[in-house]
Amino acid sequence: RETAFVFAITSAGVTHAVARSCSEGAIESCTCDYRRRGPGGPDWHWGGCSDNVDFGRMFSREFVDSNERGRDLRYLTNLHNNEAGRMTVSSEMRQECKCHGMSGSCTVRTCWMRLPSFRTVGDFLKERFDGASRVVYANKGSNRASHRADPRHLEPENPAHKPPSVMDLVYFEKSPNFCSHSGKSGTLGTSGRTCNSSSPGLDGCELLCCGRGFKTQTESVTERCHCTFHWCCHVSCLNCTSSRTLHQCL
């Protein structure tokens, strides 16, 4: 599941960065996307410089997907998640407009298509991560030599679940147990991690410590405080000692 998110957000990042660079004139081989326009309206028309997401997606396929080798389940899931990241960038594009008129009035508007912030893309993919589907290969007699992942090749491991869409994240191996140390999977576990005893979130001791409990200790901390700037030119500070309570997972 975690690998699915990494592949998707990496592919989305390449798409987003290249598409934005095209519209900013930072890449000689591409420009704004002047084709991305609709029918217009009574008081506005298409213009401006739309972000070239089509070029970004094309570049991402050639650059990111080229690392994939083989025709097995790993290959299909990686390409599927790459495409899901690219599709997320495209689907979240929004129309922006600039007003034209006397004294700042908006009698006429020029509109174009703008990429979402990458934070928006990341938040969307995080939601997809939470609902990612575990899949198996569906042998339907289709051509597995195709370079692009086809959702029809993948079906949910649980027959009761719906097939993944092109924007869903998919995986085929269970995530390791992040609660315990494992040299094989490279997980460090959560023993010794500092946690928040009053938080119900992911940083809370109840979740972070995986039910093992936690220990509490008080330590003294010396920090620089009451700093003053003297002309010219140095800063003098006092040393202040305070106590703080730490909670660490067992």
TrEMBL record:
Biased composition (Basic and acidic residues): 147-160
Disordered: annotated segments: 141-160
InterPro entries per the UniProt record, alphabetical: Wnt, Wnt1, Wnt_C, Wnt_CS
Protein location: Secreted, Extracellular space, Extracellular matrix
GO CC annotations on file: extracellular space
Keyword field contains Lipoprotein: yes
Keyword Nucleotidyltransferase carried by entry: no
Chief localization: secreted
A Gene Ontology BP annotation from the UniProt entry: cell fate commitment
Alphabetic keyword roster: Developmental protein, Disulfide bond, Extracellular matrix, Lipoprotein, Secreted, Wnt signaling pathway
Top-rank lineage group of the source organism: Eukaryota
GO terms assigned for molecular function: cytokine activity; frizzled binding
Cited function: Ligand for members of the frizzled family of seven transmembrane receptors.
Family of the protein in this entry: Belongs to the Wnt family.
Official protein name in the record: Protein Wnt
